[in-house]
From TrEMBL:
PROSITE patterns named among the record's database cross-references: GDA1_CD39_NTPASE
Pfam families: GDA1_CD39
Species the sequence originates in: Aulographum hederae CBS 113979
Identification of the protein by name: Nucleoside diphosphatase
Family: Belongs to the GDA1/CD39 NTPase family.
Signal sequence coordinates: none
């Protein structure tokens, strides 16, 4: 498992679907890096602009053709996610598609079929984690959408992690949340203590978990108004407008359109004179506000008092402590045209209404020229311009007549928040303490309810504190809490927490993960991947160590794994001949591939090889009386067959032991050299030519001979590499003098030659 965890979530709205990718540190890494303050905070969620992609229209348009939603709508979104989530994290990355008002308005059979098709397509075409369709692919209620938005706003503003820095008075440190889309509108806030106690059963219990495993609980009121989004409100407004004029009228005056603008009842511009009923803009914004007000339906029955509008119950809002953040249409309608050069400016009712009135009373010809000249920015087109007057009127009515937000600059706010000082400066400098502030981003992160859902999921992956009841992360009704800390209808934040290792390596975000994550990912292929990696490293090191050392190393490996005897053996086995584990790698490890090479004889006799161990190496040559330790260590070595240095080559020397008899033998003895049987053989002397002796050539002597069965003689440098590669012969060759030492002629193996007596 790598350093980062990822999550993919699709906001399936009424006008389009937007994909978001979020990432956060895995729990163990986050805990390792956290300081005293951060360890008590929620997991830190990150995202980037490139992680987002939106396409039109919404999935609700596939209600009658659900089989087309995958290839025609979801495929480019899934491809985008696969591009930016590292491959090593695919199977650990959850994917969610949460549909909102557009899908909620579909008939139940169409909605069920559509969501089922979406889940099947996601399972078949993405490798992401999708264990439960009911949890990951669903049409969420408007209240749930509002709660996720409330989480996102307070997470970004710091209300959760730094409550002392956001103390609004009366022990209150969270912010309210307002969201308005095309089809619905939501409100979410934590009432003051008095109202929370009075309306306890109307609240949602929300539980999060910080990095140290502590639970955070909040009680939040959330509600939604379906068909009170701007598009649905406009549809209801046009329907009421057309019904208020004489039947058969072709031109219907509309005060919510700029002067001279003609549009169809569907909002499309009318280019020429038309006998079809259409709307004609009069540009009277004050009349527009009055015409839109009845859409709030404030006279609807209120079965559970108090109510705001349309008979929807909402606890009394204390604007001294409840400061609201508005997103989506609240932002676009207040800033896209009227504050496009002052994005951080706080919302001011008086200033806003003046600017809207100034814009909407212009003729449509003047507005068109302003759009062409980019007077209001590059993002404002004709469609935006012709819709903004109605949207602004609807927004003002919802905020001030519906919800009751005080009109900054006109109405007193009470307490310390009043007067025109509240509208001076940017919203950031005032810590969002206005009753209402429209925002799009906070600290360069978009305020989206999808972020709130991912905060909930990441929080659920933190293991609870040891010794405490593991209360589930999620949300549900604020009543009937069970022993495990959940309530009726509890919505879990995610799957079970995963215990992940601490990974100190940094991911390369550009290519989607570092080499460590890709090689050591938590998958069934992990062990083979590690073995393959180690094999590649070993082969690379082997090829870089030089020809002489490769030959010496291959000899030792064959000796250990069954590749044949040592070069000093009396048998005529070729290197790497035949059997053993390394038998198939003769060419790679420098051995002969001669087909006549005999196979290796298994060791059967003697004690178990695990019964002995290497002796300690003492580098002091005077610490031993053994005559072998006083032999030279540089220059040409004596090639006496009885010498303990016989068989030494470049690299590590081949350890050998000889009998006491061989140490005292005369160097002038011209008889064929003798050897004592190895550790696993008999004690009788054996001829060098006896190739069938068991255990011969292992370099193992009697365990009682010198105290240790094996002694090491260090590393020497050999320059005569060709001697090692020359064919071995049993014919003796006279030696030539060289500096007081006898040197074999080139082209003959020094191991099997008898020393000439000079």
């Amino acid at each position: 498992m790598g350093k980062w965890r990822y999550g993919v979530i699709l906001d399936a709205g009424s006008s389009g679907t937007r994909l978001h990718i979020y990432k956060w540190l895995n729990v163990q890494r986050a805990r390792h890096d956290a300081d005293e303050e951060d360890i008590h905070s929620l997991p830190e969620i990150e995202t980037e602009r490139k992680y987002t992609k939106k396409i039109h229209p919404g999935v609700s348009t596939f209600g009658e053709t659900p089989t087309l939603v995958g290839p025609d709508h979801l495929k480019p979104l899934f491809d985008h996610a696969l591009k930016y989530v590292p491959k090593s994290q695919y199977e650990n990355t959850p994917i969610f598609l949460l549909a909102t008002a557009g899908v909620r308005l579909l008939p139940a059979p169409q909605r069920t079929a559509l969501l089922k098709e979406i889940c099947n397509y996601a399972k078949q075409n993405t490798p992401f984690q999708l264990p439960d369709c009911d949890l990951h692919i669903q049409a969420i209620p408007g209240a749930t959408e509002g709660l996720y938005g409330w989480i996102a706003a307070n997470y970004l503003l710091g209300g959760f992690d730094h409550p002392k820095e956001h103390d609004h008075g009366k022990g209150h440190h969270t912010y309210g949340f307002l969201d308005m889309g095309g089809a619905s509108a939501q409100i979410a806030f934590a009432p003051n203590s008095t109202e929370a106690e009075k309306h306890a059963e109307d609240l949602q219990l929300l539980r999060l978990r910080t990095l140290d495993g502590q639970s955070q609980e909040y009680r939040v009121f959330v509600t939604t108004w379906l068909e009170f989004g701007v598009n649905e409100a406009r549809r209801r407004y046009v329907k009421h407008l057309t019904q208020s004029v004489d039947q058969g009228a072709t031109e219907i005056p509309d005060p919510c359109l700029p002067t001279g603008l003609k549009v169809t009842t569907d909002g499309k511009p009318v280019e020429e004179e038309s006998a079809t009923p259409h709307l004609l803009g009069t540009g009277k914004f004050s009349e527009c506000i009055k015409a839109v007000f009845p859409l709030l339906d404030k006279d609807a029955p209120c079965p559970d008092s108090p109510c705001l509008f349309n008979g929807v119950h909402v606890p009394a809002i204390d604007f001294d402590v409840n400061h609201f953040i508005g997103v989506s249409e609240y932002w676009h309608t207040t800033h896209q045209i009227f504050e496009h050069k002052h994005e951080d400016k706080a919302y001011d009712y008086h200033t806003y209404q003046d600017r809207v009135n100034e814009f909407c009373t212009q003729s449509w010809d003047t507005i068109e020229k302003g759009v062409e000249g980019k007077k209001w920015g590059k993002k404002v087109d004709e469609t935006t311009a012709l819709e903004v007057c109605f949207k602004a009127s609807w927004l003002i009515n919802v905020l001030h007549e519906g919800i009751g937000v005080p009109r900054v600059g006109i109405e007193g706010l009470g307490g310390k928040h009043n007067g025109t000082k509240e509208v001076l400066g940017g919203a950031k400098e005032k810590c969002y303490l206005n009753p209402f502030q429209a925002v799009n981003k906070i600290d360069d992160t978009e305020v989206s309810w999808t972020l709130g859902r991912m905060v909930l999921y990441a929080s659920s992956q933190v293991p609870p504190m040891t010794g405490q009841l593991a209360k589930a992360v999620g949300h549900g009704e604020n009543k009937g809490i069970l022993g495990d800390g959940i309530t009726d209808g509890w919505q879990f934040g995610g799957g079970r927490p995963i215990d992940l290792p601490v990974d100190m390596k940094d991911d390369d975000d550009d290519d989607g993960g570092d080499w460590h994550d890709k090689l050591f990912e938590d998958s069934p292929r992990r062990i083979p991947g590690i073995l393959l990696f180690l094999l590649i490293v070993c082969v690379a090191l082997y090829l870089l160590c030089g020809r002489d050392r490769r030959a010496a190393l291959s000899t030792k490996l064959r000796s250990l794994f069954g590749g044949g005897g040592s070069p000093s053996s009396g048998s005529r086995r070729r290197r790497g001949g035949g059997g053993g584990i390394l038998g198939a790698g003769n060419k790679l490890f420098g051995g002969s591939s001669h087909p006549a090479g005999p196979t290796y004889d298994r060791l059967e006799a003697g004690p178990h090889p695990d019964d002995f161990e290497l002796g300690d190496l003492d580098s002091d040559p005077e610490a031993h009386d053994d005559p072998r330790d006083r032999s030279g260590s540089s220059g040409a070595e004596s090639l006496d067959s009885n010498s303990p240095k016989v068989g030494r080559s470049s690299g590590w020397a081949t350890p050998q032991l000889v009998t006491q008899q061989s140490l005292t033998a005369s160097s002038l003895d011209t008889s064929p050299p003798k050897r004592s049987a190895g550790y696993f053989g008999s004690s009788a002397s054996l001829s060098l030519q006896n190739s069938n002796t068991h255990g011969f050539g292992l370099g193992l002597g009697s365990p009682n001979m010198f105290g240790n069965p094996i002694e090491r003689f260090g590393v020497v440098s050999r320059t005569e590499s060709r001697e090692k590669l020359a064919p071995q012969h049993t014919v003796a060759l006279p030696r030539m003098k060289s500096g007081g030492f006898t040197t074999p002629a080139r082209g003959w193996s020094p191991v099997l030659m008898k020393e000439a007596v000079e």
